[in-house]
Design a protein that fits this description.
The protein has about 210 residues and is mainly alpha-helical. About 65% of the residues lie in helices and about 0% in strands.
Length: about 210
Amino acid sequence: MGTGDPDSTLVAAARAGDHDAFAELVRRYQRLVYAVSYRLLRDQSLAEDVTQDAFLRAYLSLDRFRGTSFRAWVLRIAHNAALDQLRSLARHRHVPLEAVPERPEPFNPPASVEHQGLVAALEAAIAVLPPDQRAVVLLADVEGLPYEEVAEALAIPLGTVKSRLARARMRLRALLEADPRARELLELSGRLASGESDPRDLATWTQE
């Protein structure tokens, strides 16, 4: 494990049998793992199961952890489990992986009606991205993980993270511009003025 991992001391203690140390790791990343799992699966119960399973697997596999980031490692476990769930749902429901069974929950937007409209439009657009693109947007743009950590979490090369993210941002822009109400809000807020807005803005409105 790299010495740059802020969780290295806790991981070492957990490996030595300190249950409180592992509980602290769970406390640090449970919200993140659940949030990413939910927005991949669009199902609260499944996301809770994936989150619980991810930390259980991480605990049982601590001795085999050789990554540089515990956060990226547990996210990789959760991401793989979520993909398994999506494949299972697709087989049993005969729907494509891109399908969205229910409307996503909000990202806790502020009171501004305009901002709420933008966030709702963005949520709907993210929800219809293919799972591989959705994952990079959630980790890099919504949760703010560095690209290197996203690559580690998804077990893909750094270049693949960047290319998927570029395609996802283009797709998000296209989806938003195709929605008359979303486009109206975008134009009112100046996001599409002269067509020069940064695609990264599309996934950071929820942080404003």
